[in-house]
Amino acid sequence: MKKNLMSVLILALVLVNLILTGILTITILPQTKKSNELVNKVCSAIDLELESGDGTESASIPMDQVKTYKIEDAMTINLKTGADGQTHYVKLTASISMDSKNDGYKTYGEDMADRETILKDTINSVINTYTMEEFNADRQAVKDAILAELQKQFGSDFIIAVNFSEVTVV
């Protein structure tokens, strides 16, 4: 008789466990779906933010509208000390590309030679934050950082690209 009573008790507990598991699944599943939708919305918002840029894309501007100002002197800039502990520097000639139809170009771009010192200082201060390894690994990131800083400094996006030529890293 005791064995039979124990079997009935175990069967009852298994049924209660099954019912509670079903209730738990039914109540938690909608909340899980809502949480999943929220995560998807956050992920899509982050993707949009990563893809959108603050400045004007140079590809969207016709080449006949692009004016280039070349900084006359080659610049020698110290790089941040890297993992090897040695001091490295980069020697380069820089130029900037500007949108000649932008209002900022009319204000600043036509007499950019007067602002060459500002350009050199900005380029110097941005490149100083990179090690030799970082500079060599992703020069486009360096150019983008300089571009963002120049656009912030001039308060306009008439500068559409920063260009390097004759780059030597030592």
Helices and strands in order:
Elements: H1 2-51, E1 66-70, E2 75-78, E3 89-99, H2 103-107, H3 116-127, H4 132-137, H5 139-154, E4 159-169
Antiparallel strand pairs: 1-3, 2-3, 3-4
Q: Would you kindly provide a written description of the structure presented here, covering whatever features stand out?
A:
The chain is of the alpha+beta class. It has two domains: 1-52; 58-169, Band 7 domain (Tetrahydropterin Synthase, Chain A). It has helices at residues 2-51, 103-107, 116-127, 132-137, 139-154, and strands at residues 66-70, 75-78, 89-99, 159-169. Helix 3 crosses helix 5. The longest helix is centred in the N-terminal third of the chain and has 50 residues, at 2-51. It is elongated, with a radius of gyration of 31 Å. Residues 49-56 have low confidence and may be disordered.
